[in-house]
């Protein structure tokens, strides 16, 4: 066995590529679909009032999935819908908008401004639904 070959940059690159393919980064919808599904429960008042801890854990899971899905979207921006410059610009803008909206929502909940927390999460998900559409791996 050629020991040196296992630590070459090329081998490392292949290994990383395998990992992110397995995680589904390139598919573009794995993370965002799961986040959208979980987000539904965040808007149900009964869950929010009775199981506050669920809202917290679910909330942090959603934020993580959203950020990962934004990374995936940036990765496929050059290929999606033909990968034209306007498409790449749209994906980039929506990634920035959704990340900032999530940031604002987090800042607001920490300052106990709950109406603003809710409003920014809603905005974030409208941006994300657009981003999901524009960065779907078709064409
Ligand atoms: C996708 C939608 C949402 C996400 C991802 C989300 C995420 C989160 C997270 C991560 C926290 C914990 C913050 C901390 O550590 O202090 C939190 C807290 C909170 N959220 Fe949301 N949230 C969402 C929607 C909503 C909505 C629609 C409301 C309704 C007004 C709401 C009300 C609250 C309240 C009252 C808390 C404080 C609960 C506590 O003390 O732990 N959230 N949210």
TrEMBL record:
Parts of the chain that traverse the membrane: 28-47, 59-77, 89-109
Any Pfam family: DUF2306
UniProt entry keywords in alphabetical sequence: Membrane, Transmembrane, Transmembrane helix
Stated name of the protein: Uncharacterized protein
Native species: Aspergillus oryzae (strain 3.042)
């Amino acid at each position: 066995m050629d020991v040196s070959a296992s630590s070459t940059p090329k081998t490392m690159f292949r290994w990383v590529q395998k990992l992110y393919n397995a995680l589904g980064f390139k598919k573009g919808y794995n993370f965002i679909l799961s986040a959208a599904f979980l987000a539904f429960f965040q808007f149900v008042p009964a869950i929010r009032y009775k199981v506050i801890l669920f809202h917290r854990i679910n909330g942090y899971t959603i934020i993580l999935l959203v950020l990962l899905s934004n990374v995936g979207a940036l990765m496929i921006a050059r290929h999606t819908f033909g990968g034209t410059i306007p498409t790449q610009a749209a994906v980039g803008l929506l990634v920035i908008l959704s990340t900032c909206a999530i940031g604002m929502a987090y800042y607001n909940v920490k300052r106990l401004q709950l109406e603003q927390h809710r409003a920014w999460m809603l905005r974030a998900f409208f941006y994300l639904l657009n981003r999901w559409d524009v960065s779907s791996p078709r064409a």
